[in-house]
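Subject: sequence -> structure tokens, single chain

Hey, anyone have a minute? Need the predicted structure for the following. Not urgent.
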Amino acid sequence: QTKTGIALLYDEVSENAYDIRLKLTKEVLTIQKQDVVCVSGSDHSANHRTVTLRRQPVGGLGLSIKGGAEHKVPVVISKIFKDQAAEQTGMLFIGDAIIQVNGINVESATHEEVVHLLRNAGDEVTITVQYLREAPSFLKLPLGSPGPSSDHSSGTSSPLFDSGLHLNGNSTNTAPSSPSSPIANEPKYEKRWLDSLSVPLSMARISRYKTGTDKLRSNAFEVLALDGVSTGILQFYTAQESADWLRAMSTNISDLTLQNMKMANKCCSPSDQVIHMGWVNERLEGSDSSQLYKFKFLALKGSSFYIFSTPPVSTLDWVRAEKIYNLCEVLFKIHKLWLADDCWLQANLYLGIHQDFDLEDQRPYCFSVMVGHGKSHYFNVELGSELAVWEKSFQRAIFLEVQRTGSKTYMCSWQGDSLCFTVDFALGFTCFDSKTKNVLWRFKFSQLKGSSDDGKTRVKLLFQNLDTKQIETKELEFQDLTAVLHCIHSFIAAKVASVDPVFIDSQSIARKYMYSN
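Reply:
Had a minute. Here:
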């Protein structure tokens, strides 16, 4: 199914916007610009057309013009009147820039100079025109056919006025002259939407933010292809249109990512499947950074969480990841959602692990992935639906890895003794002597009643003795305490999910709010 519509292409350098037509298919976004093409007759270049107009007693030249050098735009034809001289030639169109009048170059002439020339040019006026493909939207030229009828250009007066040349001007000949009409073998021209740029959507990314800032573009976004080719800034007339197009493009990108995942999974063993992957923005540390956020490509595959600067395209690319973490040892946390009433929701999805983030940034849909040694990565996505998918995918990938692994053992110590601490999906927690392998203590997951740590290496685990109902405190010291705490969290969550999947679903912060939004 193909979606089409009219939008504007915003040029940040000139700060002008141009009318374009968008064509979205499953795999490609095409940007079209209007141009005049030669459809029959001698194969002249449609770039420059020279047309002779005969001024008529009623209606004059039959056209109006806008623009001029004082507005940094050429003088363009802004209206063509039905059944009058300009229309009868079949060779002039709204949006044509006037280059010459009776051999005089007017490319850098002011509006008034061109009006004066045309009004005083006699009964036969020869003009050379070239269609202005990127007519700034401030000229408010009607798009006209072809393409969907659009009222975006009507009803608002332009900051530049129309000068009507459908008046007589200084005609010396008062007898009606024969009307301008196309000669039989003259070339025929038509105004058409022509493909200007095609952006493949596979592994493409969308950005609604002004580069390097937290400023959200108003009703606008940019699409960047895998090879870095950009659509430029696509601007829409209403928030609703912008949201519709954003959703449609995101859906198509997601569908293609799913296809890519299926292809990749054909080459991978069942234990090494891609669960989810896609683009996010990662917030960079340090406010002096020239760019607050940078695009990153995340993947959940097999036992690992990958962070890439560019997507993995071949099997060999997986070793190119900037960072690789074991899924049992990471913690996913949602930070921000933008609710329907525009208030912020701060959501903590975990207990007992505290890490304060500077939440000054203005982006909604943020999550962090906390990793070993107290470090973390802070990400943002463009849509609430994407946040919900990441939440669900992390959960699923972690649970699968826990069930596959079955148990994880960490070296630790207490009071000079070298010990091993095992988290086991079936048995719970076990601590044994690393040399003799003698079991020192063992507790089920359900016996863990609380924990506290010093934020560095030491943790106190509080277990309830099943016989005495008394709380027993076990203290241990780990090299990477954060990884161990995350691992305990992952195993307990996976255990709960295996017993009560409905409870885990009910804890989904993102989905609860996104779909009501």
